[in-house]
Specification:
eight-stranded antiparallel beta sheet; 2 domains; mainly beta; 4 helices
Length: 444
């Protein structure tokens, strides 16, 4: 920084178990020693940087090494968040990727935090060199401009030691003189939490590490009698799952992908299963509503999910299916990996015969070539193709739109794959599940 430097800017450093976003204040203060212990154990904690006499923070650092996450939030004099930096711990736990950067440029002191008309920009970076910059010069209500970051942009930084973190806000805001850090006063009794305390008692308004999307009670979709709602229909009742034939997977490698994506990259997701023939099912709900067109009460049956049953055993745990380049450490709050479709179509297939099955799918659906495949009538499952050489099959199913669909892999208590489920639209909310294992299916 140019010019004559003053005596410096004093910045107080305080530690806590959590940060209350609503109150803009630390929750349950910690001593420096207690925070250092949590850092070494990988447990969540926060660091608050504040100029003495200033009611709002200068910067807040949110740390959770076990979640591979560090967040830096910068605040202005009105207590509004102006900058966010999302760092992810990758490689050998020694380097941090600048995963996301977001900036808000408030047009005046009266503008509310994250106002829809606030000029906003965001940058996303990936380890493989990909990235994007989104600019909204007139806020969320204006036009978005999307560009690609410069090739020489800094993506990585060495993980600092506990006591060596720089005060980013000091660099960006050009505080007068050098920054002088000093420990904030800690009330007596603070820091009693040990490394086993996970801050689970923190109020709902407190920050928590970002968590990828969770599956929800998927098995409830296949239990007749379960009452649910999708937010639009007040009540839906699960009926008996519909069996729609079988799928042959002689290679022992199941593919789940969007078959309408005609690239040469192969299937999006592959899951090892024992070679065999497995049942295809549709989860269905009965919905009743007053239809103005029919001028009366109408009842219909809708499909909510498709499933490939590998075993009669129920899943005791679920995990998100991942592609070869998917790294869950990169996901933000409620984000997913999955297969992409721009034709509202997914499929289960034998990955060992993928190229042949994929060509047959294209020849049947796009070219209408006789003998390349067969249509499946009156079902969410659309069509089937078969590789005659291996016996492997592909069965395509419809989704309710384009986009990315997560794949949920259910495992037994022994870790074996017992079912694979794809929601064809969002997960409904369970209203009542009277089955014996309904309580186990409820979301945590």
């Amino acid at each position: 920084m140019g010019g004559e430097q003053g005596p410096g800017t004093v910045v107080e450093v305080a530690y806590a178990l959590a940060w209350d976003l609503e109150a803009r204040a630390p929750w349950r203060p910690l001593t420096t020693e207690a925070a250092r212990e949590r850092d070494a154990a990988g447990l969540p904690y926060v660091v608050v940087y504040q100029i003495p006499g200033r009611e709002v923070p200068l910067e807040v650092r949110l740390v959770s090494w076990r979640d591979h996450y560090v967040g830096l939030w910068l605040y202005d004099d009105q207590g509004r968040r102006t900058d966010e930096l999302d760092l992810r711990l990758l490689d050998d736990q020694s380097r941090l990727l600048s995963r996301r950067t977001r900036k808000w440029q408030y047009t005046g002191p009266e503008m509310a935090e994250f106002d829809d008309e606030c000029p906003h920009s965001a940058m996303e970076l990936f380890p493989d060199g990909r990235g994007s910059i989104t600019q909204e010069p007139r806020g969320a209500r204006g036009r978005k401009l999307v560009t690609v970051p410069d090739a020489d942009i800094r993506r990585w930084q060495v993980r600092p030691r506990f006591e060596d973190w720089p005060v980013v806000a000091a660099l960006w805001r050009r505080l007068p003189g050098p920054v002088v850090l000093q420990a904030a006063a800690v009330a007596s009794g603070a820091g009693a939490a040990d490394a086993s305390d996970d801050a689970s008692e923190a109020p709902a308004t407190c920050w928590r590490p970002p968590r990828p999307a969770q599956p929800g009670p998927l098995d409830a979709l296949f239990r007749p009698g379960t009452r649910m709602t999708d937010g639009y229909h007040p009540e839906m009742t699960v009926v008996e799952p519909r069996r729609t034939g079988t799928l042959r997977v002689p290679s022992g490698l199941l593919a789940i992908s969007g078959p309408d994506n005609l690239s040469d990259d192969g299937p999006a997701i592959m899951v090892p299963v024992p070679p065999g023939e497995y049942v295809l099912e549709e989860a269905q709900v009965r919905v009743g509503y007053d239809c103005e067109w029919s001028q009366g009460w109408v009842t219909r049956t809708d499909t909510t999910a498709v499933r490939l049953r590998i075993s009669e055993t129920s899943a005791s745990s679920w995990e998100m299916g991942l592609g070869p380049d998917d790294d869950p450490r990169l996901l933000g709050e409620n984000e997913i990996f999955g297969f992409d479709t721009d034709g509202a179509t997914g499929c289960f297939a034998d990955a060992g015969a993928w190229e042949s099955l994929h060509r047959l799918f294209e020849r049947h659906l796009v070219r209408g070539e006789p003998g390349a495949g067969e249509d499946i009538p009156d079902s969410m499952y659309l069509l089937r193709t078969q590789d005659k050489a291996s016996g492997g099959e592909l069965v395509a199913f419809a989704t309710t739109g384009d986009g990315t669909y997560p794949v949920w892999v259910g495992r037994s208590t022994d870790g074996d794959v017992v079912e694979v489920v794809v929601l064809v639209e969002g997960m409904p909310t369970v209203l009542q599940d009277d089955s014996a294992d309904g309580a186990e299916a409820a979301p945590a």
